[in-house]
Structures are given as structure tokens and as C-alpha cells.
Design brief:
Elements lengths: L5 H21 L4 E2 L4 E2 L5 E2 L5 E6 L8 E6 L7 E4 L13 E4 L5 E4 L5 E4 L14 E4 L5 E5 L2 E5 L7 E2 L6 E4 L4 E3 L4 E3 L2 E4 L2 E5 L6 E5 L3 E5 L13 H4 L3 E8 L3 E8 L5 E6 L5 E6 L7 E6 L14 E4 L4 E4 L3 E3 L2 H5 L7 E3 L12 E9 L5 E3 L4 H10 L3 E6 L3 E5 L5 E3 L8 E7 L1 H39 L6 E3 L3 E3 L2 H7 L6 E4 L3 E8 L3 E8 L7 H8 L18 H15 L4 H4 L6 H16 L15 H10 L18 H14 L10 H9 L11 H8 L1 H12 L5 H9 L1
Parallel strand pairs: 26-34
Antiparallel strand pairs: 1-10, 2-7, 3-4, 4-5, 5-6, 7-8, 8-9, 10-11, 11-12, 13-23, 14-15, 14-22, 16-17, 18-19, 19-20, 21-22, 23-24, 24-25, 26-27, 28-29, 30-34, 30-35, 31-33, 32-33, 32-35, 36-37, 38-39, 39-40
């Protein structure tokens, strides 16, 4: 038996206390007392284990920050950062220390204080007992006997959490409780955007550089904002509250489900987003964002660059390059672009202009009183500070940086021509580069032409041993008997469209092909052959836009009975201009078929009330259960929310007025849940459809018995 003296017992007890406390920190406590600190991988964890506080880093940098993150999610999403502008390089030798006066301070490896809670001594007592805790709502608080004397919720960074966090305005201190985004996904330093509450109102603003407003939520009506109706319709959010008083005005909200994480945040793109993570989720899901397009965020692409929404990127204007290439690589474009070479502006050495077409013109132009475009160009050329001009029934010139330029697509037909001034040296260098480029293109183009000729001659020689004709020297034309042989006399049908059937075939016994045979052979003209010829010898699945080959008069007859109920948009009937929204209509009809597992045109063999698009529209407008709409073969195995969303999107796609249909880009956002779909109105053509049922049956009889002269017969019957 071994006996210890009292001194040994005391030493052992002290060691045990120290070891226990160290172990307690490493296993993550939810509170600290003055004199204690966090270093290295030591953390505080909220009582239920939802949130964690400690040192973290992002990417491959050696920058470490004190922050709060979701403890039990795999990506450890950070919701609050203390030292955003002052990272430390060594978390092991750095300390997040709780001082005796009730303050926290962050000491770097040299033991210099780089961040502090900065409680004033007038508000705390030297004899008070302080405790610091991390709560299950993500709030880090310092308390004494009187209550909370400091909390992280009063100093938000980029995230607004439910359960007590507030955004608003303190009238007594003129302090804003606003959100500012990270500079980029790897750098939590404050970005240039902010989300703030209007000081004298009830609206949220998104601001660039604290002054330039580029989005407004609209006024608060007690349940939602005018521009964000999704807040009221969101089942995962509750108790959205606005509290105005003499001290200030604040918004707060709660999560309706304690097992579902909700967070509002301002992204580094300058967009205001809401994310949700529920049971079974593997990632955050965004269910709305404003603005919906990042090109609508003022200054997102920075100075002298062009925002390309379709390509989801920013590009520097000609003659410019990224000011900070490293930041551009991380997705932060706000520093913009700078000139590669300065403007000469010397007599006898003229700078020149590069036309940038189909763009939204930069903001803040100066108007000059000149009569025409030539005078406008000359005025800008003579002004050394002028960087660009545009003539749009008046002369607009810009000096210095060019902001908020967006590239439109040809379909949008909103763009203007911007004449960008570039230096003479840039033009000369560009000519040299262009000369070299054209030489390379010429050589490669020549080789391509030779290879193409060889391939065409080979195909002509080998395909069925028959002589083949060509159209304009570029398109191979097969004789009808060759196609009959390849398809075994059109024996295996793959599918049927509004104007013809598709059959399976093979070339040389091994190369699979699809052959489309029109119902009306008189339509096989040069335009049809040209459309096929436009396909860069690259296999594609397409119908080659055959609808364009049908004359407008006959198309109105055909689509009234079959096309509208099949896939073709109503504007074909009315004779209106055809736009890309016609594709949206067709996609909506296809989506109906995916949901139901049956062809839309099967209504001809069934009761009218069972026409699936009509059923979907009725169910949505009556707010009935959508489960009955699902393909019975799936046995109900589908997510109800996703099914409801798909039904709504399909009905939005088939609206009569093309302006009421979403773009295909918006369709993707609707299906992903980024944008809330809402309840679509009943398309009017579905009501008109009932009146044309008898005529549609007659049409079905006519088309089923049509011969090669079908076009003439149909016109005769319906004239």
C-alpha cells in the first residue's frame, strides 16, 4: 500500500483539475468564465450541439478567424465571424481570451490584441461575475447578474438567423444592424454590398458601397414585403415581426420546425438569399433570392467589365484586364478591370473605338448637344478623359470607369451599341495578333475542308453503292430507295410528331440512323434540306424545326386541332410572331407527360375531363392534393413538394400569352426551388379546347387517312 502526504494529494488534485478543464474544452463546453481562453482546436458548443465557436479557416490560406458555425452539418457553414479584417496565422499560439472585466479579446501569436468586444467600463461592474455562453440559436452572449451585456446577434456579419437575431436601425446610437457579405467564398472580409433596413420606413435595401440602391423589398404589410411575397407563403418560417419604437425599428423571425435549419444571408454576389436544410438533406437548398439575376446587382462585375448572364460570368472589356486576377479566380469581380495600355491622347496619334454591341449602357452618362453620331464620336475622341460614347437619338459620353454594362442576347432585342475607346498601341498590337490568328485559322480551315471533302467522297462511294446528289456542295442527299433499304421499308417506328413519323434504320449494317418521313411530301423542299445541313457533322437529337416549313394558313388549321393540345404554342394559330417562348410552351406540355406517364393527345380515346393539362390546372386552382396526378406506375413514390412544383411550372409554361410564360432559365430556377412558382391561372385555351373536341375527332379521321396530297385534302375539308 502506498501512502501520500497532504502536499502530494494537493498537487495531484490540482493536476487533475487542470487536466479535467483541458479535457472539458477539447470536448467542447457551452460556456467560459473570465480568465479562460480558446486556442487551437478548442471550441465552445451550444447545449444541444447545434452550433460551435472556435478558430476556422477556408480554402488553402493560412488565415484563421474566430467564428460560429453549424456543428452537425458536414459543410460547417459559418454564420458569424469576429475578426473579419484581421486574421491570425497560427491558432495554436493565438488566444480568444475572456478578460476579468467582461470583455473578450483575440490575441495573435505575438500576444497583440487584434479584436475585442469592447464593452465600456461604465456598463459593467469590476466586482460582477461574468459568464460567456454559446446558445442553441447561434447567439454568443456575455452575461452578468443583470442579464446580457454583449451578444453576437447585435453584430451580424453576412447571416440573419431565426430565434432572436434582429436586423434594423438603432435610433439612439444611429447604429445599423445590417448584413455585409464575405468578399469571396474563401475570404470573410466585408464585401462591398450590404443589406439594410430603410431608416425611416419598413423596407429592406440592397446597397452597393453603402449608397447605390439596386433592390428594394417594398413596404412591409404586416405579413410580407411587396416584392417578397414568398415570406408569407413559406411554411418553414413563422413569427416574422416588425417592431418600431422610440429606440429603433427591427425585424426578426423564427423557424417553424426545430429540426429544420433556416438562414437568410447576403451572398458575395450581392444577392439576398434564403437557405434551408431539413431532414434527409445533403446540402443547403435555396428557395428564393433577390435579385434573381446577378447581372442586376449593381457593380457585381466591377468597373470596365461586361456581365454575361447566360454564361454566368464577367469579362473585361477589350483592352482591359482584371485589376486583381487572384480575386477574379475566387469569384470576386468587384475590383473590376483596368487598361492594359494607357490612352495616348497625343496630337497625330489617334486613339480609336471598338463597338460593343447589344449591351445595357453604363450608368451615369453625360449628354452632349451634338447633331449626329459622327460629331459625338469626334467629341469623345478629342476629350482625353472620355472613355466611351453611344448615340441613341442623343450623344452620351462617359469619363472614367464604366459600370453596370450587361450583355444582352439577340433574342432580348434591348441592347445598344457602346463605342469603347481603345489606345492606338492596343489597336496595332491587336492587328498583329489578329494577323497571326487568321493565319492559324486559314491553315486549320484548309485542312478541315480537305478532310471534309475526303469524308463526303467516301460516304458517297460506300453508302449503298449508289450515286448521291448534294445540295450547295455541303449536304448529302439519299435517294428514297436507299432510305427504304436502310429502314427495311420503314418498318420500325420510333415515334410520331405533328408532321411526320420517325423510323429506325442502319447504314452499312452497323451505323444507326433515324429517318423522319413527312406526312405531306410536298413540304420536302430546299429549306428543309438546308435546316438539316446546319447541324457543325455533329450528331444531335432534334426535329430540325420542321414546324417552320408548314405554311401559316395550313399550320393554323393543323395546330388548332392537334398542335395546341400536343406541343405547339397558341401563337401559331393567331399568326403572332414566334419567339423562344414557344419552346417554353412545348416544354410545359412535355412536363405534363413526364408527370402523368401518358401522351397528352390520348384524350381523343378518353373523356374530355381527363385531359391531363386540364386536370392539373383544376387541381392547382382548387388547392387539391396533387398525388392523384402522378403516374400510377410510380406507386406514389415521389416527393410531394417536387411534384407540386413540377405541376405549377408546367401550367406556367402553357399560358396563352407568351409574356406570362417563364424563360427556360427561369424554368430551371422554378424546378430547383430557387424561385417560388405560385398558383398559375387557368390557361384560356384549355377552355376553348372543349369547344373543338368534335372538330378534333374529325381532324384525327382526316389525318389518319391522308395520302401524299394530304395538305390539299385538309385545306379543302376545313375551308
Amino acid at each position: 500500500m502506498i501512502h501520500f502526504g497532504s502536499e502530494c494529494v494537493l498537487v495531484v488534485l490540482c493536476c487533475f483539475i487542470i487536466i479535467s478543464f483541458g479535457a472539458h474544452l477539447s470536448t467542447a463546453s457551452d460556456k467560459l468564465i473570465p480568465g479562460r481562453s480558446l486556442s487551437g482546436n478548442q471550441t465552445l458548443t451550444s447545449p444541444a450541439g447545434k452550433f460551435e465557436l472556435g478558430f476556422f479557416t477556408r480554402g488553402n490560406s493560412n488565415n484563421y478567424y474566430i467564428g460560429i458555425w453549424y456543428a452537425n452539418l458536414p459543410d460547417h457553414t459559418v454564420v458569424w465571424v469576429a475578426n473579419r479584417n484581421h486574421p491570425v496565422s497560427d491558432p495554436v499560439s493565438s488566444e480568444f481570451r475572456f478578460l476579468e472585466n467582461g470583455n473578450f479579446t483575440l490575441l495573435d501569436q505575438s500576444k497583440s490584441s487584434i479584436w475585442s468586444t469592447q464593452n465600456s467600463m461604465s456598463s459593467v461592474s469590476k466586482s460582477a461575475t461574468y459568464t460567456a455562453r454559446l446558445l442553441d440559436n447561434g447567439n454568443f452572449v456575455i452575461q452578468d447578474a443583470s442579464g446580457v451585456i454583449w451578444q453576437s446577434f447585435d453584430h451580424p456579419t453576412d447571416t440573419w438567423l431565426p430565434g432572436g437575431a434582429r436586423l434594423g436601425y438603432n435610433k439612439l446610437t444611429n447604429q445599423k444592424l445590417a448584413l455585409t457579405p464575405w468578399k469571396n467564398p474563401q475570404d470573410p472580409a466585408p464585401g462591398i454590398f450590404s443589406l439594410e433596413i430603410e431608416p425611416n420606413g419598413t423596407s429592406f435595401w440592397l446597397l452597393y458601397n453603402g449608397s447605390q440602391q439596386y433592390w428594394n423589398s417594398g413596404p412591409w404589410n404586416g405579413k410580407s414585403f411587396a416584392q417578397v411575397p414568398e415570406i408569407e407563403r413559406n411554411d418553414h418560417i413563422t413569427n416574422v415581426t416588425f417592431v418600431p419604437d422610440d429606440k429603433g425599428s427591427y425585424f426578426s423571425y423564427d423557424s417553424a420546425d426545430p429540426d429544420t435549419y433556416i438562414r437568410y444571408m447576403i451572398d458575395f454576389t450581392g444577392q439576398f438569399k434564403v437557405y434551408m436544410w431539413g431532414k434527409g438533406f445533403t446540402q443547403w437548398n435555396s428557395f428564393w433570392l433577390r435579385p434573381t439575376q446577378f447581372c442586376e446587382v449593381y457593380g457585381f462585375c466591377g468597373a470596365s467589365s461586361i456581365c454575361q448572364q447566360n454564361a454566368s460570368l464577367c469579362v473585361c472589356m477589350e483592352g482591359y484586364e482584371p485589376k486583381v486576377p487572384k480575386e477574379w479566380g475566387l469569384g470576386d469581380h468587384t475590383d473590376g478591370c483596368v487598361r492594359k495600355a494607357p490612352l495616348k491622347c497625343i496630337a497625330g496619334v489617334d486613339d480609336t473605338f471598338k463597338v460593343v454591341s447589344d449591351v445595357r449602357l453604363p450608368v451615369n452618362p453625360e449628354t452632349l448637344a451634338v447633331d449626329n453620331s459622327d460629331d459625338c464620336r469626334l467629341a469623345c475622341l478629342r476629350n482625353c478623359s472620355c472613355t466611351a460614347f453611344a448615340y441613341d437619338n442623343r450623344c452620351l459620353v462617359w469619363g472614367g470607369d464604366l459600370f453596370n454594362v450587361k450583355q444582352f442576347t439577340p433574342d432580348e432585342k434591348e441592347g445598344k451599341d457602346l463605342h469603347l475607346k481603345i489606345s492606338a498601341s492596343e489597336r496595332i498590337e491587336g492587328k498583329k495578333e489578329n494577323r497571326t490568328l487568321w493565319i492559324i485559322i486559314g491553315v486549320l480551315g484548309g485542312l478541315f475542308i480537305v478532310i471534309t471533302i475526303v469524308v463526303v467522297l467516301f460516304v458517297k462511294h460506300r453508302c449503298f453503292g449508289e450515286k448521291l446528289d448534294t445540295l450547295d456542295g455541303s449536304l448529302v442527299m439519299f435517294r428514297c430507295r436507299a432510305l427504304r433499304k436502310a429502314t427495311n421499308n420503314f418498318s420500325e417506328k420510333l415515334g410520331e410528331g405533328g408532321f411526320g413519323s420517325v423510323f429506325k434504320g442502319t447504314l452499312q449494317g452497323s451505323i444507326a440512323i433515324a429517318v423522319k418521313r413527312l406526312n405531306c411530301p410536298k413540304q420536302e423542299d430546299k429549306q428543309f434540306l438546308t435546316e438539316i445541313g446546319k447541324l457543325e457533322y455533329v450528331p444531335k437529337v432534334a426535329d430540325f424545326g420542321l414546324a417552320k416549313l408548314i405554311d401559316r394558313d395550313i399550320s393554323r388549321i393543323i395546330t388548332t386541332m392537334k398542335g395546341t393540345r400536343g406541343y405547339i404554342a397558341p401563337e401559331w394559330i393567331s399568326g403572332e410572331a414566334i419567339t423562344s417562348k414557344a419552346d417554353t410552351f412545348s416544354y410545359g406540355m412535355l412536363l405534363f407527360e413526364l408527370i402523368s406517364g401518358r401522351r397528352n393527345r390520348d384524350v381523343l380515346d378518353d373523356a374530355l375531363e381527363n385531359y391531363f393539362p386540364t386536370r392539373v390546372a383544376n387541381v392547382l386552382n382548387k388547392e387539391e392534393d396533387v398525388d392523384a396526378l402522378l403516374d400510377y406506375r410510380l406507386e406514389g413514390n415521389a416527393d410531394k413538394d417536387q411534384l407540386s412544383r413540377a405541376c405549377k411550372v408546367a401550367c406556367w409554361c402553357i399560358q396563352d400569352d407568351e409574356k406570362g410564360r417563364p424563360t427556360m432559365g427561369q424554368v430551371v430556377q422554378l424546378l430547383e426551388g430557387v424561385i417560388d412558382a405560385g398558383i398559375p391561372p387557368m390557361p384560356k385555351f384549355l377552355d376553348r379546347f372543349s369547344k373543338s373536341l368534335v372538330a378534333s375527332i374529325n381532324y384525327r379521321y382526316i389525318t389518319s387517312s391522308s395520302s401524299d396530297s394530304c395538305r390539299h385534302d385538309i385545306l379543302s375539308e376545313y375551308s
